[in-house]
Amino acid sequence: MTQKTSIKQWIALAAMGLGVFMGLLDVTVVNVALPTMVRDFNTTFTDLQWVLNAYTLVYAVTLMIMSKLGDMYGRKKIFLGSLILFVIASAVNGMASSLLILDIGRGVQAIGGAGMMSLSMALVASNFSGKDRGLALGILGSVIGVSTASGPLIGGYLVEHFSWPAIFYVNVPFGIIATILTILYVKETPSYGKNQKVDLLGMLLSAIGLFAIIYGLIVKEGHPHWDWTDARVSSWLIGGVVVMIAFIIAEAKAKDPMVNLKMFKKPHFIGVVIVAFALGAGFYAYNAFLTALMQNYIGYSATQTGVRQLVMSVWSLILGPVVGILSARYSKKWMISISMFIGTLGFWLMARAISPTVSFVDLWPGMVLMGITNGMVNPLLNTAGMEGIPANEMGMASGLLNVFRQLGTTIGVVVLGLLQDNQYETYLNGHLSSIHMPAPALTGLKKALIDAGPFSGHGIAFSDRLSHAPFAQDFQRIVIHAYDNGMTTVAISSAIIALVGGIAAAVLLQRNPKSVEIPVKQPDENN
C-alpha cells in the first residue's frame, strides 16, 4: 500500500544524500590537493599515490561486504556506523602528521564511504513507497552525479583558500549533521539475517579477489610500459580472477550466500550492471583525462577547471528529480538507452574539438551532452536496479551496482590511459626525429617525455629551460600534437564504451519488470 510521504522522510533522504555525497566526493577530491601535499610532506607524487589508491582499493573491496551486513542486521545500523567511522577517519586524516597515518586513515575512511554508498539506495527504497520512491531515488542519483563531478571545484576551492587538511575537516560538521538526522529520521529495515549464518568464506574470497584485480590494475596504471604478461601485473590479475571464480563456486553451494547468484539469471539486472560499468569506464574515467587537459594543457587552475565543469555536473541537479518523476510514467529501458547514445555523441564532439588551440568554448557542447547523460542515467539506474529485487536483497543489489560502477571507473582509467600513452609515444617516435638537435640530447628529451607521460609532458616542453632553446617552438608543437592524438583516442574509445552501454540497455533491460513492493517499516522507540 502506498503511504503518504511526510516531511520526516524527505529529511531522512537529505541525511542519506549528505552521506553519499561525502563518500563519493572523497574518491576524487584529493587529486587537486596532491601538489600541496608534495610540499607539506616533502615527498614525491609516486609516494602520494597511495593516498588515492588506499581509498579506491578499500572502497571497492568492502562495498559488497557492507551491503550484506546491512541486509542481515539492519541497513540503518550499518549506514549509521559507516557514517560515524567516516567522520572520525576524516578528522584523523586532517590531523595526519605522516603519510603512513594518512594512508591508513584513507583506508578506514573508505570503509565508511562504502557502507554509506552501498546501503543508501536500499534505505531510500525502504523509506519511500509508490511514485515518491522513484522521485527519491532520482534525487539520490542527482547527488551521486554531482559528487563525482564536483571534486575539482570543491577540492580546488578548499586547497587554494585553506590548504589540504580542509578537504577532510569539511566532512566533520556535515557528517555530524548527517548522523543526527539519520538517528532521528531514517527508518530501520528488518534484520533479514536474524536466523542466517554470516558467509565468512564468501566475504573473504570476494575481498581477496577484488583487491587482487584492482591492485593489479593500479600496478599497470603506474607502470604503463610493463606488459600485461609481466608477472608483476599478470600474477595479481590472474590470481584475482581465480579467487573470484572460487567465490562464485562457494556462493553457489552456500546455504546462506553473501550474494544470491540468481540475480544474474535475470537479463534486466545484467543490463543494469553493464550500464553501470559503462558509466564508470566511459564517463567517470574520462573525467580524469578531461581535468588533466584543462589544467595541464589549457592552463586553467583547479578552481577555474571546476567552475567550467559545472556545465556537466549541473545537469545532475536539474535532471535527477525530473527523471525520478518521468521514470514512473515512461520506459526506463529506452530512457537509459537514449541517454547513453546522447553521451556517445558528446564524446564524438569532444574528439572533434581537440586541437592545439582548444579552449572551453570548443569543449562545452560535448561536456553538456556528457552531463545530460550522467544526469539521466544515474537516477534511472538506481530505480531500475531495485526493480524485481526481493526486499531482503536490495542492499546487495545496490552494492553490486556500485561495485560494477567502481570497477568500470578503475578499469577505464587504466585502459584509456594505456591507449593515450600508446598514441602519444607513437606520435613522438614518428616526429621528434625531424628536430635538428644533437642525437644524445634528442634521445634524452624523448625518454624524459615518455617517462613523464602525456599528463606531464607539457610541463617539460614548456619549461623555462627548453622555452629558450632555438628548437623550442617545433618541439612544443610536436608534444602538443602527440597529446592531442592521445586525447582524441581517449574520447573515441569512451564513445564506443557509451555506445555499448546504450545497446546493452536496449537489448537487456525490460520495459516494466515486475517490482517487489517493499513495506515501509514504521520506526519504534529505539529508532
UniProtKB/TrEMBL annotation:
UniProt subcellular location: Cell membrane
Domain Major facilitator superfamily (MFS) profile: 12-513
Membrane association type: Multi-pass membrane protein
Membrane-crossing segments per the record: 12-36, 48-66, 78-102, 108-128, 135-154, 166-186, 198-219, 231-249, 269-289, 309-327, 334-351, 363-381, 402-419, 490-509
GO MF terms, alphabetically ordered: transmembrane transporter activity
Family stated for the protein in its record: Belongs to the major facilitator superfamily. EmrB family.
Protein's UniProt name: Major facilitator superfamily transporter
Organism the protein comes from: Secundilactobacillus silagei JCM 19001
Source lineage: Bacteria, Bacillati, Bacillota, Bacilli, Lactobacillales
